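step 3/5: co-fold with PPS
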Amino acid sequence: MDPESLESLANHMEKIQFAMGQVKGVPLPQDTCDVWDTIYGFQAREDDILVATYPKAGTTWTQEIVDLILQEGDAEKASRAPCFVKVPFIDLILPKPMKSGLELAEELKSPRLLKTHLPIELLPPSFWEKNVKVVYVARNAKDCMVSYFHFQRMNQGLPDPGSWNDYFSTFLAGQVPWGSWFDHVIGWWKARDKHQILFMFYEDMIEDPMREIRKLVKFLGRDLSEEALEKVKHHSSFQEMKANPMTNFSTLPSVVFDQSVSPFLRKGTVGDWKNHFSVAQNILFDEEYKKRMEGVDLTFRTEL
Ligand code: PPS
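step 4/5: write tokens
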């Protein structure tokens, strides 16, 4: 993104906070809803790779790993542009003159790496028609909630999350941008065997990044040397990504992401929910979780 666009964006963003709308009951930024038919009609290409997640599940991390795999561990090539430019977010429309994810995607040469937070029922059908490979990353709901709370505090485009206690109820009710965590993970989980979907877990990636990188390499049909694999692991580590302006979002002005409120790469751990949930909230959450996940053979780890 060039400095002029950023400055112009900054001027716009002082006035604009994304209004929220809905598509088929899923809360989405109004600008996304306004061009929904265009987004839904997005034309995927056969060799696209899509990273799909519920927000805060490890999207940026996974994007970076996949791109580093495609670049065979070459960090310079992977740092050719900020992560939000090289991996277009197809369901986000930014104020003009910023390019939308759709426009950025059109401009990219194949093979394209794309990002979405859409629940599966809203995914543009061309991804299935073209049999695109999808990497879905899921993260336990408690840590997602905490990460999203801090993200909504710092992301000046998204609704203010209010107090932690308020946010706890809002999140559980699915009244956050991109909707319910439960619907999202369950929808994608049930579809995992019907399409080319690699279903991954943030907790597994934290536990053993190399094991998960190897899974990705295999899924993508690549063959990397041990040296290249080590480079992928090193350059996608939390510390490296936090220090890298191409992955830490520091190229965005503070009227968009105010990282003095909370950094984008905040903690990068499993179990930070324990520092936020009260005992009562934890009981309430576990009861709701049991109800919502009943009959779903999907297990998350909330601590390692
Ligand atoms: S977004 O805005 O939805 O695209 O956010 P997303 O990238 O999905 O999630 C951000 C959280 O992922 C953490 N993160 C990492 N963890 C471990 N290792 C690496 N390399 C890494 N990169 C990003 C990031 O810190 C956010 O989690 P929290 O818990 O807030 O720290």
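step 5/5: annotate
The pocket of PPS is lined by residues 53, 55-61, 143, 147, 150-151, 236-238, 241, 265-268, 272 (CB under 6 Å).
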